[in-house]
Write a structure and sequence with these properties.
By secondary structure, the chain is an alpha/beta fold. It has three domains: 5-193, Rossmann fold; 198-285, N-(1-d-carboxylethyl)-l-norvaline Dehydrogenase, domain 2, CATH 1.10.1040.10; 288-417, Rossmann fold, CATH 3.40.50. The protein is built from 14 helices and 16 strands. The protein has an eight-stranded mixed beta sheet with strand order 3-2-1-4-7-8-9-10, with helices on both faces. A six-stranded parallel beta sheet has the order 13-12-11-14-15-16. The chain has a two-stranded antiparallel sheet with strand order 5-6. The chain is globular.
């Protein structure tokens, strides 16, 4: 096993995490990207992503993990994974240019008997059209989660492999690599594997959407979604690991991309996807949850308020703001001024004239009319709600994920809004 050399072409989130975990398993790992500046930054400890435990894990791999911008280094690899993140636009459309470019680089430098594996998420049919020997070409489904990627990559529930001929044994080198992970291996056709990743995400999306729809009903009728969740988790048909925490729509780009991919497939093959379109519509609607509260507080006049936002990233433990609810909220409240704080996001590519970054959460809070906690970073849960209230102009707190320890007895002067619960309002 120690003689196996594994390469990764593409050093964004997927490639960096996957290569790092492979090196952690004791395998020599070549981490390649043709972006010379990116590789130089990584070698100097400047990672392009925020991911818990990633920097520390790379440090443990100093003798087994090599970062390089020289494609000839791939010639030593027994397996090469094509591993860039697939970028999407704001409508969820994928760009596969970088995937194709890195696949071509890998193919032009791969040794004769080595295995080529497409690891990044691609639409069904992509792998089969690659001009490479099908007996040495595979697609592997990635199931990483931003903010928990090291654990997911180290201990997957199962690994899904797309093959030209699923009944044929895997090459010894690939099989030896997969044995490191000690989990079930599912071998299926290329197209089935490519669609299985999309199927996983659409099932998650359906659960998220149903949860959000029902949590809003809870807010209207006096029910509490937090009381309903345990009943669902104890149902074996739903289960304790289901996505039952309500949120502010779909963000991050991955789920949105898969919805768009299925819609395109349905249009091409004339199948019905009205339910998929409804997921997109509902996501857009959910992103307006916080801004609608602000408009309701100002009696539908143009709000000119000072708002503090804690959290710009679309979820905790990541620096990505792709389709985040925070950006949607800021865009919907152009008349307001914003002071924002996020532990991982310190600047925005998009320019907002009404936004100022703060160095600390409490600096952003000073003299705010409204506090919005729009990313559930763990640090926010430790803050004292009375101290928060004292630094604000008013007592309006919009806390969708219920990060703050609020109750009407300890903080009766606060108008507190959270998802799935009738708001606690000061008398």
């Amino acid at each position: 096993m120690s003689s196996l050399t594994v390469g990764y072409a593409g050093m964004t989130h997927l490639g960096i995490v996957s290569g790092t975990v492979t090196a952690l398993k004791g395998l020599k790992t070549i981490c390649f990207d043709d972006n010379v500046e990116l590789i130089a930054d990584i070698k100097n400890g400047k990672l392009p992503i925020a991911e818990p435990q990633l920097q520390e894990t790379i440090a443990l791999n100093s003798s087994s993990q090599v970062f390089t911008s020289d494609p000839s280094d791939l010639k030593s690899c027994d397996i090469i994974f094509v591993s860039p993140d697939v970028s999407t636009d704001d409508q969820g459309n994928s760009s596969l240019d970088n995937v194709n470019s890195l696949a071509n680089i890998a193919i032009s430098h791969i040794k004769k008997d080595a295995i080529l594996v497409i690891l990044c998420q691609v639409p069904p049919g992509f792998t089969r059209q690659i001009s490479f020997k099908k007996a040495q070409l595979y697609y592997q489904v990635e199931t990483l989660i931003f903010g928990n990627a090291i654990e997911r990559a180290t201990s997957p529930e199962r690994i899904i492999i797309g093959c030209d001929e699923p009944t044929v044994d895997l090459p010894k080198s690939y099989n030896s690599f997969l044995e490191c992970f000690k989990c079930p291996i599912l071998k299926i056709k290329y197209e089935s594997a490519e669609l299985s990743k999309i199927a996983i995400n659409l099932c998650l999306t359906s659960s998220i959407t149903v949860t959000n729809v029902l949590s809003e009903i809870c807010e209207k009728i006096g029910a509490d979604w937090g009381e309903i969740m345990p009943a669902l988790q104890l149902d074996k048909r739903i289960g304790k690991f289901s996505y039952l925490s309500p949120g502010l729509g779909l963000s991050g780009g991955n789920l949105e991309r898969d919805l768009v991919t299925v819609i395109k497939l349905a249009k091409e093959h004339q199948t019905n996807v009205d339910v998929i379109k409804s997921f997109i519509d509902d996501s857009d609607y959910r992103k307006q949850w916080a801004s609608k509260i602000v408009h309701s507080l100002t009696s539908n006049t143009s709000p000119k308020l000072s708002i503090c936002i804690w959290g710009l990233a679309y979820k905790k433990n990541t620096h990505s703001i792709k389709n985040s609810a925070s950006i949607a909220t800021i865009s919907a409240l152009k008349e307001c001024s914003f002071r924002v704080y996020d532990p991982a996001v310190k600047s925005l590519d998009q320019e907002f004239q009404n936004l100022v970054f703060s160095e600390t959460a409490f600096e952003a809070l000073d003299n705010a009319d409204i506090l919005m906690v729009l990313t559930p970073w763990d640090e926010f849960a430790s803050f004292d709600i009375k101290e928060i209230h004292e630094r604000m102009n008013s007592g309006v707190i919009i806390d969708p994920y219920k990060m703050l320890n609020h109750n009407t007895d300890s903080s009766p002067d606060i108008d507190y809004y959270t998802i799935g619960v009738c708001k606690y309002k000061k008398e």
